[in-house]
Every structure is written in C-alpha cells, then in structure tokens.
Amino acid sequence: EGIQLAATHMMRGRGGDLTRMANNIIKLRQLQEVEEQVNVAEHQLKAPKRIQVLTLATDDFTYEPRETASRFFDFALGGTSRESKEKMAVKYEERFNKTLNSTHRVHTMHITKGSDKAYLEEYMRSHEFFGR
C-alpha cells in the first residue's frame, strides 16, 4: 500500500509533480513542433533551434553529481567560461557528498506515516485507475 499511497500523493495534493512533469514534457514537445512548422513555413529548414530542452534524471544527479551538474551548467550558462562552470559543478558535488555523509541530515517523513494516510487511502480505493 505504501507505494500506491506515495504514487497518489505525487500525482495530486501537495505533490502533483508527476502530473506537472508529464504536462511540461507534452507542452515542450508541442512547442518544438510549432517551431518546426514555423521554420518550414518560412523556408528556414536549417534554422537553429530556438527552443531547446535538456532532460536530466534525478538518478543522474545522485550517481554522477559533478558530471550531471556540469551538463546542466553547459546547457543553462552556455556563454560562461568552462572553468567557471566546472568550479560550480565541483562545488555542487562537494555539497551533495557532504549532505549524504552528514549525520545531522533532516529525514522527511514518508507519506504513509503522515496525517493524510486515511484520506489518501480512501482516494485511491475510489479512484478509477488506482482503485480496486
């Protein structure tokens, strides 16, 4: 039940991240299609892309923090010197590792332990997709 409750929480309520992320992906793809149609209509078939999207998985930041941060900085800060971006990526990795190794980390409570459990369970049981 825990995984189902967590999935519900991520799709609605305070989370809503899964629904929002899926919608963002759809909208960005639609925007890229519109850009392509405009380029075709204007006979600019080799025009540089104005709408660029970089997708990074959370696992990438977890397992390769410096490399992933470096990819992000290359994308977001294109004109900034390589040396500056690399320094920021190294600093990110250091902070990330420090947080991982900290004995004073703040542990967040799992959704199934919170006060919303009864509401989420009822919501899931009556839900057309998640319900039983």
List the keywords.
132 residues, mainly alpha, 0% strand, flat
Q: Which strand-content bin applies to the residues?
A: under 5%
**Using only CA atoms, what is the Rg?**
21 Å
Give the beta-strand count: 0
Shape verdict: flat
Counting DSSP H or I runs of 4 or more residues, the number of helices is 6
How far apart lie the N and C ends?
A: 12 Å
List the uncertain runs.
Answer: none
Provide a brief overview of the structure.
This protein is an all-alpha fold. It has helices spanning 2-11, 17-41, 58-63, 65-76, 82-101, 117-126.
Question: Topology, pairings included?
Answer:
Layout: H1 2-11, H2 17-41, H3 58-63, H4 65-76, H5 82-101, H6 117-126
Helix pairs in contact: 1-6, 4-5
Describe this structure in words.
There is one protein chain. The protein is mainly α. 63% of the residues lie in helices and 0% in strands. It has 6 helices and no strands. It has helices at residues 2-11, 17-41, 58-63, 65-76, 82-101, 117-126.
